[in-house]
Protein 1
Amino acid sequence: MAGDRDPKGGNVAVTGEPMGLLQAIVMGIVQGLSEYLPISSSGHLFITEQLGNRLFGWKVGGAGFTAVIQIGTLIAVFLYFWNDIKTAFNGWVRGLYDRSLRDTPEYKMGWAVFLGSIPIAIIGFLLKDQIEGPFRNGYVVAGSLILFALLLGLAERQGKQEKGYRDFTPMNGLLMGFYQCLALIPGSSRSGCSIMGGLFMGFDRATAARTSFLLSIPAILGSGFYGLIKHRAELLDEGLMPTLTATAVSGIVGFLAIKFLMGYLQRKSTAIFIWYRLALGLVVIGLTSAGFLDSHTPSTELKVSVLEKRVS
């Protein structure tokens, strides 16, 4: 059963049926692939759930589901970068007590991650209603896919890529944290924005990606647990199995995506992702104009409107 039509042109989610395991697996694969490749997980999840709802009657998971399944990709970062995380944390703690260790890259990276996590925590809290509401529509996703593809291409052209991991400073981390805030707009990409920032600051691609992943840990951790707490009633009503399944799948696929990207960026540029984003952005504009993707009312509000109609 496909989703009902909204008077404003959006697709209304079918709220009476729980999310199935097939949908959960597909959403987990999409999350795992798109969280760390610079193509936007929020944008791809929006497109997948909207088209799934329109074509197959899939449940629209909402912002809570999207936030929680990120925990799987967070685990993937911990597994892949465990030595980096452990070394940076130990170097940071030791440097707090031993001044002679404060010039080490580990101490600097510890502070870089700490300072870089502050902007998104503040701005994400201030914009939480917009993130879960007006930002979630097809035209915003399409515009972000295209705009940030062009900006990433500009960073590739202008970035000198002369700096490496040992050159990364706490102030670089803070600045990259502001770039990461751009990822609050669906379609922009957390990894894409922070990698873009690293390139603009003169770092090579591998260093930009590596620090981007480390910087994502506090942001994803906070977003995931905030979504879990805020939307716990909704998630429990849906049943834990779909959410747990999507989270586990996203973790496995996310690990493979990180491994692929780290190797890829040591040899090649981000051009393939730039062209992909541009093409997808144009497709999303077409799908939104044709009514396959929401263009006005956020899906979370649409679900409420359907429930109100059924009660009345």
Protein 2
Amino acid sequence: MFTAPPSPFLVPFDGRFEVGSQPTAPGADAPGKDDRKKRLEQCVERIAALQHVMYAHDKHAMLLVFQAMDAAGKDGTIRALLTGVNPAGCQVFAFKQPSSLELDHDFLWRTGMCLPERGRIGVFNRSYYEEVLVVRVHPEFLDAQNLPERPDLETLWAHRMESIRDHELHLARNGVVVLKFWLNVSRDEQRKRFLSRLEEPEKNWKFSQGDLRERGFWDAYMRAYEQALAETSRPWAPWYAIPADSKSFLRMTVAELVCAAFESLDLKYPTVRAEDVARFAEIRRKLETEK
């Protein structure tokens, strides 16, 4: 079964994780911007090639989960990561407020319907983790979920964490490589990006008053992220807390981790049987002499 690529940003598997100790910016020893861009391009090219082999190999799928506060860079990172991948080999889903149909099912249903087939990369821009993040910060959202029983909130979150761990273990046992990225943007950097959206007309559409309202719950979200990541980071479904104040460093780091995960799978093109090879030679002769 797949195990997590090593990284200084890997969330430990023992429950010891503190948001406050995590960097939001690259360290002093981080590569320069030009080197970051070059390394990103190399990884993107490699990922595109390995996805093609994964499709032929037909035993694995890859699920990339992105969670973050608003303006942390999810969309741009996903776009940069998949630039070179065959569009038929990847699927991107963004999960927002659930519909009435989705609310009539369990909280894993709507994302379960969107899991990638073997050979494909699936990307969740937000995910089932919203149920232990935004719903935890706003427990009034539970009123619309028509739960048959409503335990106390701490018990409810514990049950949902358990369900998520079981779900991801089931996926891993069935060949799905699960990689989860928390884009750790600082509150000050988010403020700067919000101001940029307001000041540049071509970015105005990105801003909503809801973004500013949710910013007011920053500390509650950080507590929710801390517990969610601590309780659900596992070797077969790791979380990575990636510094997100620098978009170029963020994109390079995510790409290198995805590339390392691909490399760990020992993917191979299927071996063609000897009798089929013999037939290929005959077919080739016919095609070469065809008039």
Protein 3
Amino acid sequence: MSDVSAPVTLPPLALYVHMPWCVRKCPYCDFNSHAVSAGDDSLPEAGYMAALLADLDQDLADFPGTAAREIVSIFIGGGTPSLISPDGYATLFAGLRQRLRLAPDIEITLEANPGTVEQGLFKGYHEVGINRLSIGVQTFQSEQLKALGRIHSGDEATRAADSARAAGFTTFNLDLMHGLPGQSVEQALDDLRRAIALKPTHLSWYQLTLEPNTVFYRQQPVLPEEDVLADIQEAGQALLAAEGFGQYEVSAYARPGHRCRHNLNYWQFGDYLGIGAGAHGKLSALTADGLSIVRTAKTRTPRDYLAAAQAAATGTSAAFRASAQGIAVDELPFEFMLNTLRLIEGVPSGLWHERTGLADAVVAATMQDLRARGLLLPEGERLAATELGQRYLNRVIETFLPA
């Protein structure tokens, strides 16, 4: 697989910024989001921007050398980041540039809702340096939008894509779900056709799942039967391929040259700082023994997060970080494969040693067994699941769990 004598280097570094507010909590959503009225004057925009920078300062102080590493991408997720004004992001970016080395061609993505309130802000977002939008359409069907608790219409979703192009965005993603309550194969394909007609450069197309701690988990809707779900997946993938969208990850499809750099960094087991309420991060450091990898998590509620900022401003202890946990050696195979095997093309074989510092022997027996069962490609230049392996990907990844 790889040469264990090859030097171990630090992976690319990205930045994730979490905006925890949304207009309404959707019944399927298990992200860290908290409802607030659109245009609500009580949304503490200025205070939260200051808190984000104080949070970053603490990370940079606690992880020496991080400030010197180049940031290859920024992803602003939520919640609904488009509730924050362009001026708010201008303030944030000015602070980031003072503290970090941003790549000259950095990709900066903002998640946005298709509601008319946010669309008028697209031009302002583009002017302050955001160069990629991810628009949460989910579906164009009125009844299914209602069932999902979404506050926009199909027509508003269409106008949002038009507004993105008019604002100067040459690359944007549309987020779509399938396997919705009562959805037929034709309805799922109609969503895809309507999305493709809007000429996005990227599509995220994934099946609705019932996650714990959500309304849908407690009050489960009736979802399509397994054979219908399989037909939707097969027909949808064929349509996307025919329309020039290459699948490069389980639920990611892109025009040539428009793969999401930020998510690719996740899936290639890269590093990322995570700032904001509930944000997660992964940071590597070179040690005498190879690599030390730490996962971080920030305090979840906006109230506690803002209180940490107030404490920091007065010179007292600021508890932005809820946890910082090193990844144990026996957990690294699962952590690495959980990300990299999501990629349809896989990763270069040498990436295992490069990103973990471990020898091939650590995973050799498991990989030999998976190859013998036709679930991984034969040993060579790339580590990837076969078509059969992709079909049973969760089971493949689970074989790397610690005993």
